[in-house]
Amino acid sequence: MVGIVGWAVIVGLLLAWQGIGLIRAGDGWPTMSDMFRRITRYPPGRVLLFSVWLWIGWHLFVRGWRFFLRS
Question: Is position 13 within any domain?
Answer without folding.
Answer: yes
